[in-house]
Specification:
alpha+beta, Monooxygenase, six-stranded antiparallel beta sheet, 29% strand, ubiquitin protein ligase activity, ubl conjugation pathway, F-box_only, F-box_dom, Galactose-bd-like_sf
Length: 254
C-alpha cells in the first residue's frame, strides 16, 4: 500500500509539482529528497508548466533544448523600458540633452503627423531644434535575470523603437544601445547611422529594431538612449518623435 507521497508514480508527481511556482521548485522542492530533485530537473515537468501557463505551441519541441530555461525566460519576459509611451510624463527617463525648446510630450497624431499602427499607443515624446536625448539604464538583476543565466545562456536581447517626423519639417533620429559589464564597460553596442528625414516626408511611424546575439559574457546592464532634433532650426517642437520603445530578453520563439 502507498504510505508516502514518494510512492506516487513519477507522472503523477510531475503533474502535482508542475502546479507550484518555479521559485518554489528550484529553491525548496529540489531540496526535499533525491527523488524530488530528479523530478524537478525533468524536462517533462517544465514542459508541462509551459503548457499550463500558455507558453507552449505545437512545433516547439525540436527547437527547445532546455525547457526549464525556456519557461523561466517566458515567465520573465516583459518590456524592460519603463514609461515607453509617455503616459507617465518623463518619469523613469534621464534627460541627457534637453536643448532648444526642450523635450515635450504630445498626443497622437500631433500637428502634421500620423497615427502609429500599434494598439494602445496614444502619446509620444518630441524633440526641438537643439539636441534632445534621453536614456534609461536597466539593471538586469533587478529584473530577475541573474548573472549565471546571462553568462551561460546569453538569451537574445531584442531592442525596438518607433520614430516619425512631421510632414512639414525635416529632422534627425539617433539611437544607441549598449550592453554593459558590472564596471560599466561596453561589451557590445548597437549604434546605427543617424536617420535623416527630409522636409515634406510621409510622416509615417517606422520601427527601428536590433537583436543582440552571442554577445560576450558579463552583461549586467543595458543602456538605452534615443533622440535627435529638427534640421531646420525652427522654434518649437518640429524635431523627431519617438514612442513605444522596448527591450525584451528571449526566447525568440515567442
Amino acid at each position: 500500500a502507498m504510505t508516502t507521497i514518494g510512492d506516487l508514480p513519477e507522472d503523477v508527481l510531475v503533474e502535482l509539482l508542475s502546479l507550484l511556482p518555479a521559485r518554489d521548485l528550484s529553491c525548496a522542492c529540489r531540496l526535499v529528497c533525491r527523488q524530488w530533485r530528479a523530478v524537478v530537473e525533468l524536462a517533462t515537468l517544465w514542459k508541462r508548466k509551459c503548457q499550463r501557463d500558455g507558453f507552449y505551441r505545437q512545433g516547439l519541441d525540436k527547437s527547445i533544448s532546455d525547457w526549464k530555461i525556456f519557461y523561466i525566460l517566458c515567465s520573465l519576459k516583459k518590456n524592460l523600458i519603463k514609461n515607453p509611451c509617455a503616459e507617465e510624463n518623463f518619469h523613469h527617463w534621464k534627460l541627457d540633452h534637453n536643448e532648444g525648446d526642450k523635450w515635450r510630450i504630445e498626443a497622437m497624431p500631433g500637428a502634421h503627423g500620423t497615427e502609429i499602427q500599434v494598439p494602445d499607443v496614444h502619446r509620444y515624446f518630441v524633440t526641438s531644434y537643439g539636441p534632445c536625448f534621453k536614456s534609461q539604464l536597466i539593471t538586469l538583476q533587478n529584473e530577475g535575470y541573474w548573472n549565471q543565466l546571462m553568462d551561460e545562456k546569453r538569451p537574445e536581447i531584442v531592442v525596438k523603437d518607433w520614430y516619425a517626423a512631421r510632414f512639414d519639417c525635416g529632422c534627425r533620429y539617433e539611437i544607441t544601445v549598449r550592453l554593459l559589464s558590472e564596471d560599466y564597460l561596453v561589451l557590445e553596442e548597437f549604434r546605427p547611422e543617424p536617420v535623416v528625414i527630409e522636409q515634406w516626408s510621409d510622416a509615417l511611424w517606422r520601427e527601428m529594431s536590433h537583436t543582440f546575439q552571442n554577445y560576450p559574457p558579463g552583461v549586467r546592464y543595458i543602456w538605452f538612449q534615443h533622440g535627435g532634433q529638427d534640421t531646420q532650426c525652427w522654434a518649437g517642437w518640429y524635431g523627431i518623435r519617438v514612442t513605444n520603445s522596448s527591450i525584451t530578453i528571449g526566447p525568440m520563439t515567442l
